[in-house]
Amino acid sequence: MMQSLLSYNALVRKVDEFVERTVRKYAPYISCRIGCSFCCECSFGVFPVEAWAVRVWLGEKEEREREKILEQLAPSSGKTCPALVERRCVIYPVRPILCRTQGLPVLKARERGTLELSFCKENFRAAGSTIKIEGQFILNLENLNAALATVNEWFRREWSSLGRGDLPERVKVTHFLEELTSKGEKTGKEDIDQMGRFW
Predict the structure, then answer these.
(1) How far apart are the C-alpha atoms of 50 and 137, rounded to whole Å?
(2) What per-residue confidence (pLDDT) applies to 1?
(3) Which long-range contacts (CB under 8 A, 24 or more apart) does 125-132 make?
(4) 134: closest CA among 117, 115, 114?
(5) Cross-strand bridge partners of residue 129
(6) Do the strands 125-126 and 129-130 form a parallel or antiparallel pair, or are they unpaired?
(7) pTM of the model
(8) CA–CA distance, 170 with 184 (Å, rounded to integer)
(9) Cα dihedral sign for 173, 177, 179, 182?
(10) How far are the Cα atoms of 70, 116, 169 from residue 27, in angstroms, in the given order?
């Protein structure tokens, strides 16, 4: 098992724990729900370690289910995530970390080293005004991104050490998925056994 994958798993669990705590605390003021895809209507790169998580998840599914999901994934238009199908995420259990924090209160870096509180404009409102959010329910996005970048760099080095070549710093979320259709189910499972499982 690649150690970077274990670290990525641990980071995902921490983020999910934060999300669960925040949603429990502010449930009446959070409008995020199935079918709300405002945050998904954009195109962005992800870290290779996140794209590999998607690859592993799909590779472990039965062939029929995997092929159904692969057929749903749309070519990126540059405006919408390819995993968004009929306003639903088809890779939701293994969505990238950025997707897990969308809409929730985060601190983002601004000019001159200042931080700005940001969240979906539809959330944390009552009677037309923004409610006060306690500090323990605000995520420092800069710290999270730094931790994720460190794990990703570790993953890239481990990947290279296995003789698989070099990976860019950012890739499409579907970066590793073409192999699943071109190399077949058996080879896909062998890759997962060699590189390591996530869940």
Answers:
(1) 24
(2) 67
(3) 125/29, 126/29, 131/26, 131/29
(4) 117
(5) 126
(6) antiparallel
(7) 0.84
(8) 25
(9) negative
(10) 33, 23, 36
